[in-house]
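DATA SHEET
Item: assembly model
Revision: 1
Owner: S.N.
Input lines:
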Amino acid sequence: MLKIENITKTYKEIVLDNVSFYANTGENIAILGPSGSGKSTLLNCITGFENPDCGKILVNGRNITNLPSNNRSLGMVFQNFSLFPNMTARENIAYPLRVKGKDTSSVLDILKVIGMEEHANKYPSQLSGGQQQRVAIARVLIYNPDVILMDEPLASLDLKLRIRLQKDIKELLKDTTVVYVTHDFTEAFSMCDTIVILNQGKVEQIGSPTEIINNPRSDFVNEFVCETWKDYTASIFSSDILSSSIR
Amino acid sequence: MEQYLPNITHYAKNGGDRLEAIQKDLAREDSRRAITYLNHHYHKTRSMFRKGIDHPGWQDPKFWAVIEKEIKPYTFANFQRAANDLYLKVIGRTYLLSAIITIICLAIAYPLAYYLTKLKSTASKIALFIVLIPLFSSFLSRTVSWILLLQPFDLMNTITAIYIGSVYIALPLSVLPIYLAMKNVDTDLIKVSTIAGANKLQTFRFVYFPQTVKGIANSITLTFMSVTGYYITPSLLGGSKGLFVTEQIIRQVQYTLNWGLASALAVIMLSTSLLLFYVYYRINFKGDSNA
């Protein structure tokens, strides 16, 4: 379980203003907001790369607010996959176990789960975007962290692949608490149980995707949801997904 | 042309005793042609043969250098001479000293470049400018400045002086490639490594350092190749001990006029540099189809 309590962070101006929410074990929660809404700062506070001015971050009841980043039992998947370019897919996945001095034999099992056994000895530059993303997810799953953070993990992929990987990710991470940071409502809608909408560092609304669509609490939420749906529909029409399904 | 020249050189060397014979032979067509040819390379040749042994041109080493060049146009003899123990030792010593200077530069450059990348934008620019300042002044003035600085410590004409001067001059070349490689390190990879549980040393060893290897290779190549060609610094700070092969090359060119040997030494140095550049190319563009 992840619990964020009254997190505030100020640089020259307030970036996060008394942000609070929680995600139960196994729950997928999305932090949604436009650029500059404080999503990345919140993520940095959770991972420990930024220290909040006040507030608490709890993982399974353990206060991790002041713990070093490597001791928080978190996992993270980045937008650009961030695989180590000097390591093969197998070595990338084994990395978290290797640095902790643990046995790496489970790497083969997880390669099977993500359907990448044949590509185990390939370097990231030899893998497609979708394959790289699977390796990045496997690298997190291998050490079974308490919470997995995903920073726009599908943003750099094309729509077709994105839709396919959304299903895969949901399946792979079904038993883990996942915090999904994105500015794309449709992605959050299809992958998460709860959505937290941030605007200028403040929580605008927390609720299930349908609740947010049906009962937006502010003009901002309403406009934000409509805008992203509009973009999503436009991209569906401009892609070959629709034409191939019509055929 | 060279078939006529031995005859002329023979005349030239013994001209004082056999002036009549020379003048007689000079009437021959082929000898005249040979002299006309030589006159292109050494413009006093014609008058030397006309006036005989009293002409000062016979004493000029440049004339004999022309003669030697013309009668031996292509030969490996100079490479054989360059391959003797004396020059091989000098070449070996040049590489050894250059390698030591490169290692010292690398040992200073890596942490310095790392520090520069960690500074805030303005401070980083200022610090980088300070590192690059030596490049804005002339090689000679930089070396002469070190004479003034080292004299009070009795370090002039020592190997230490060569190390200090060379490291100072080569350091910007060492820092720049490493700095650029470090600037391009993907910070997300560092974050991934840290969140995955790696401590700072592990992150440095497995993630950060491998991403800077190309910068290190560039730095070593640039520094080593330029240091092997240093002449001013070792001769001014080291007291013309002939430690570097460049000093030997200059001696052959300026004092003994043995240009063939000088060229052979230069070609050996150039070949080694090209070999090193090839290694650098392989490291940098291994598997890169766009290279």
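QC remark: Residues 85-118 of chain B form the longest helix (34 residues).
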